[in-house]
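Hey, can you fold this one?
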Amino acid sequence: MKATPLLMSIVILLLLVWAWFFSVTEAQYYGYNWYSSQSQSLEHIYRVNDALNNIPFVAQHVQPLISFNQSDLLQHAASQDISTGTGIAAFFAFPHDSIVRFLNESITFDAFYQKMRISFVQFLMDKRYTSFNTQPYAHEGNNAIILNSWDFNIVKNIAKKDNLDVLLEQKLSLFQSGFDQLKKFGTYLDFTDINITSQEYQNLWTVFLFKNQQDLSDLWYTLVSRRSRINNDPEYRRYNIKTAFNNIGNVRLIMPNEIFSVTHEYSAYESAPFMRGYATIGATIQLVYGWWICGVATAFYQGVLTNMALAIHKMRAHSIYYKSFYNATIDGTFVSDPWLDATLYMKIVDFKVQNIREYPVVIVLNFDWTPWGNEDAFTLSRSQDKGSFSYIGKTSSHCYQRKVNGELRTSCYNKIQK
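Sure. Predicted structure:
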């Protein structure tokens, strides 16, 4: 028997009524109450369920599902700070539309939390926040971030909580406890901004710029410059380079306008002593404490060479160029022509760079001092910082010229050694 159009319409109508009843019943099971009467008080409109009855940021259900006097709502909202309950003016606010977007984009609470955290970190960067943790791995960063072909990879996430984590855990605790419900019916909810007050901002102290690979990706950080070298130097030179890398922190942030001194950094945070190494002093060869540490300056110079965010502030080449010590692969090109070295001598001769951008630059220095091990130095910042280099040639019998990031540079040597 064929169904008549009238019968089909009735069946469809019954199915729609059943679906509506089921969805409302399920919503009520989760504690969601939808009101359509203007007589319902605003405290009921703000209430989501018994488990979340103190939720400070759920403002209202969407207009098609409720009806109330808009002026009453505005008056009620003006009488108190819905997000903080304090009435204190907000220093920063997570906009309600961002909260909804992050909620919709996140499968888990951890993913939602990460988006909220990075949103605030970006705000801190824009505000020139100066208290980012500049040594995020605290002397345990060797190979925490590694080169991976033409990219980088974080293999050691930062698990330690900072003050921002403590603050956000408090602000988002109800999101965490009710995340599944909010995900299920979040499309029916609107949110007020989540505020962070000036006092809460002042209590942040030190904050991690990033804690994992996703953080750096969301902050638009990418591999900008890189240098790699197979190191089979004498033991004392390998050990001293490794020790200096560790003392700097292996992973180091250079803050906006900061002048980074290699001499200061490898000695100021000294966590392990150096070995004595052979050095040419005048006409004699002597054992000197911490010698060949200039290998750190050369690695650093080559590693930051094509990052235009870092302006060279102070630099000096050696008088003798040792190819076996200074040749390296830079941005994928093996360089054997003299001109890519930098020297140090106590605090008299130094290598310094300055961050001329408005955001931190991440420096990574990896070496475990094993024979024939990779000695890497590379930088992470924004894609617009990527520069270039080219070798021009000899300008005299002992001087060599190159173009780096559009600028001509010349280095002169008394002797070239293999």
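The chain has 14 helices and 22 strands. Let me know if you want another pass with a different chain boundary.
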